[in-house]
Design goal:
Shape: globular
Structural class: alpha/beta
CATH topology: Glucose Oxidase, domain 1
Strand order of the largest sheet: 3-7-6-5-4
Distance between the termini: 32 Å
Order of helices and strands: EEEEHEHHHEHEHH
Helix content: 10-25%
Strand content: 5-15%
Largest sheet: 5 strands, mixed
CATH class: Alpha Beta
CATH architecture: 3-Layer(bba) Sandwich
Bound molecules: zinc ion
CATH superfamily: Putative cyclase
Radius of gyration: 19 Å
Number of helices: 7
Number of strands: 7
Length: about 240
């Protein structure tokens, strides 16, 4: 009997959506008498809790979530262990290699584990504003290995935490979604997944170094909008990830 491990966060009336909409989930019960009868309605941003992003999130002509095949979000997964990072950490290519990123093969589902959601989910707004983040150049390095989807247990796009961000401030999303790779957000419990048992062949790294077709670098100037900082001094009240 296969073992099922839930990687999704709980969404309830205490849950906040990202700063972009800053909506609190509203669950409204609708009742009819004289006995008991109830249905509930929900008001929330769809980018709340564990969810996937489709290209339409950042590309006007991108495909919708409904057009993403199940094959693209099911299959063999590899956890890249970044649980050594702390609040506001800019995840570098060296960090990815340290976490096992060189083992990624074409067609993999890659899960980036920082344990940030396990530690901080529910602590608003710090969960969003103090999260480690994933700069576009690290996304390009990972995309060049050819995964079919990439999952995050942290709030990965730096500029999304800024109140005045603009449509041009999602370079990481554009790198990944622009390459036809699905983004999974709001994951948790990645530490419960089994560690890789056997070493992998290195043949599949032939793709390394070739940027994806739709890299924002090729469109010039996207990085100029909001460039994630090299390193942020942790806010005095920021909680670091204790091991
Ligand atoms: Zn999203």
């Amino acid at each position: 009997m296969p073992r099922f491990i839930d990687l999704s966060v709980t969404v309830d009336s205490n849950t906040m959506s990202p700063p972009s909409t800053n909506l609190k989930v509203e669950v409204t019960p609708h009742r009819r008498g004289p006995g008991f009868w109830q249905v509930s309605s929900v008001r929330q941003s769809l980018h709340t809790g564990a969810h996937i992003d489709s290209p339409l999130h950042v590309f006007k002509d991108g495909i919708t979530t409904a057009e993403i095949s199940l094959e693209q979000v099911t299959g063999e997964a590899l956890v890249v262990d970044l649980s050594f990072v702390e609040a506001n950490h800019r995840i570098t290519i060296e960090d990815l290699k340290r976490g096992g990123g060189d083992r990624v093969r074409k067609g993999d589902i890659v899960l980036l584990r920082t344990d940030w959601t396990d530690k901080m989910y529910g602590k608003w707004p710090d969960y969003f504003t103090q999260s480690p983040f994933f700069p576009p150049e690290s996304a390009e390095w990972l995309v060049a290995k050819g995964p079919k989807s990439i999952g995050f247990d942290f709030f990965e796009e730096y500029c999304a935490r800024l109140p005045d961000f603009s449509s041009e401030d999602f370079p990481m999303h554009r790198v990944i979604l622009g390459a036809g790779i699905v983004i999974m957000e709001g994951l948790t419990n990645l530490g419960a997944l089994p560690a890789p048992s056997t070493p992998r062949s290195t043949r599949s790294r032939a793709r390394k170094g070739r940027p994806p077709a739709s890299s924002p670098r090729s469109r010039g100037g996207v990085y100029d909008a909001c460039t994630p900082p090299d390193r942020l001094p942790p806010e005095p009240h920021a909680r670091s990830v204790e091991h």
